[in-house]
């Protein structure tokens, strides 16, 4: 028995030592951005740090807790000279981090007063394969929208600097959330991409749909009154916010009709129930003929 146990235990100890060594490397917080609804963005730098789109890291703040590590999805793009995470204040640890960064104070915070941060990672996810397809469907539910901030930023950088070598030429993005206010920073990112794409006369590159799943009659009435306005009254985007949940069968059939003979990547960051639905739709809408349309499902659950 010991022969079978020693090998895996040795590999496990090696992996723990590597992670401990990585977590001891110096991390510098270069900028703290306060977003609405108690969400902060930490921009950091670390020597030798390399990332891909959609990856995540573990973060420890010794000023808050010497033992607690918390996972956060990277919201920056590999092309940027820093890496960033968005932290929504929803518990004791995030509240303490918010205060440690001086976000509860009105005056300007000096950089040297910011707390020390330890970072372990990055670690890979399914989203890294997004550039392997010509057409992709990105589905983010709630906080699962954060990996696609990195994806969409990276797509934009690649599109601007080397569009001829970019295999990806069409993105269908679906954002399902109960309350868009909690992720207002992401709506700002979409608005920026929307404007830049229009300036380059390629507004069709990114098609997005925002579904508000938690709504009441008052919101619906407000939506009906302002529906004819140029921009959505909730997000400020040209694409109007939709209410309820998508009809996934219709969405898959529509996309399959627009891209015959294509391999379409379906990427989800969301709950297990939605993963089962998208997986079934990917299978049922893929053709048996190898030359037909095929949906390739990739998931990241939380």
Give an overview of the whole structure:
This protein has seven helices and twelve strands. The protein is α/β, with parallel strands linked by helices and 302 residues long. The chain folds into two domains: 99 residues, Elongation Factor Tu (Ef-tu), domain 3; 172 residues, Nucleotide-binding domain of ferredoxin-NADP reductase (FNR) module (Rossmann fold), CATH 3.40.50.80. It has a six-stranded parallel β-sheet with strand order 10-9-8-7-11-12, sandwiched between helices. The protein has a three-stranded antiparallel β-sheet with strand order 1-2-5, with no helix packed on it. α7 links the parallel β11 and β12. It catalyses: NADPH + 2 O2 = 2 superoxide + NADP(+) + H(+). One of its GO terms (cellular component) is NADPH oxidase complex. Its main location: membrane.
The gist of it:
This protein has helices at residues 2-23, 92-100, 146-162, 184-199, 217-225, 248-258, 272-284; strands at 27-35, 39-46, 56-60, 70-73, 83-88, 118-123, 135-141, 170-177, 206-212, 242-243, 263-270, 294-301. By secondary structure, it is an alpha/beta fold. The strands form three sheets. The protein has a six-stranded parallel β-sheet, sandwiched between helices. It has a three-stranded antiparallel β-sheet with strand order 1-2-5, with no helix packed on it.
